[in-house]
Amino acid sequence: MKIYTKTGDDGTTGLFGGTRVPKHHIRIESYGTLDELNSWIGLIRDQQIDNSYKQVLIKIQEKLFTVGALLAVDPEKEKLKSGKDRLNIPKIVTGDLSLLENEIDLMEQQLPPMTHFILPGGHTTVSYCHITRTICRRAERLVSQLNEFEPVDPILLSFINRLSDFLFVLARKLSYDTQAEEIRWIPEKKD
Questions:
Q1: CA distance 99 to 15
Q2: Chain Cα centroid distance, residue 47
Q3: Angle formed by the axes of helices 124-149 and 26-45, to 10°?
Q4: Which residues does the UniProt record annotate as the domain Cobalamin adenosyltransferase-like (predicted)?
Q5: What is the structure's pLDDT at 52?
Q6: Count of CB atoms situated within 10 Å of the CB of 62
Q7: Of the CATH numbers 3.40.50.150, 1.20.1200.10, 3.90.1150.10, 2.60.370.10, which one belongs to the domain with range 13-74+91-111+121-178?
Q8: Is the pLDDT of residue 82 over 80?
Q9: Any long-range contacts for 82-89 (C-beta under 8 Å, 24+ apart)?
Q10: pTM for the full model?
């Protein structure tokens, strides 16, 4: 299989099911941003972090490929003539949300309570995690916008939302693990 097909030379790309859309279509922006998010998660995984985090991040990366694939299906062509789903892959399910929630709970048990907003930074790995969180939020905004025009399975939005929460807590936990200082944001008082 050749990597270049030349079919996108006109500024369009194909969805699963054959529909062609502009490369700037909100659906493409949505799953393209998830691809960017997945790449940043890979960068976090490449850091000197506990292996248990790496294993969870691999699971998350796999789920993000699933979310991207589901978003790459033309909603009008989700089903084959036989009635079966066009994509024969596992869906995102409540257990995927539970994985993120359980990991958040485990990390929070080891962290001091958060009393203020925290400035991103303190350690390169922590900063990577905060950048990844912001990309996750952008992906969430795009998928939410897509949902206004073409309904998206609500669990996909829940998964992306929960993932951004996970990434925030992971950033805090990595700060803790690396003994990086968390700088609280305390607004100056007006005179």
A1: 29
A2: 18
A3: 160
A4: 3-173
A5: 97
A6: 12
A7: 1.20.1200.10
A8: yes
A9: 86/16, 86/17, 87/16
A10: 0.91
